[in-house]
Amino acid sequence: MSGESMHDLFDRWERVWHEGQHDLIPSCVGSHYIRHDEKGDRTVTREAYAANWRFQPRLAIGYQDLLNRCLIEFRALCQRLRKALNLRAVQF
What we know:
The protein is of the alpha+beta class. It has one domain (3-85). It is built from three helices and two strands, in the order αββαα. β1 (32-37) and β2 (40-45) form a beta hairpin. The longest helix has 23 residues, at 63-85. The protein is globular. It starts with a helix and ends in a 7-residue tail after the last helix.
């Protein structure tokens, strides 16, 4: 993905998050989206992901919230790697 297309993607997400332009969601995610959150990992369709945004009121998501979401996904990935490699837990 080029720098320009990455910039365009983040611009669309900003419009989804801050301006409620939910019709842009299909252009932000693939046909299937892997969610990594407190409920565990799960794959959802683009349509299901978009519907989740439309029916849940959202506050403007700031960069700290985005970083927190990334940390949750990173921790979930680390847990899967630890299990796959049979390693003991490491605190962050």
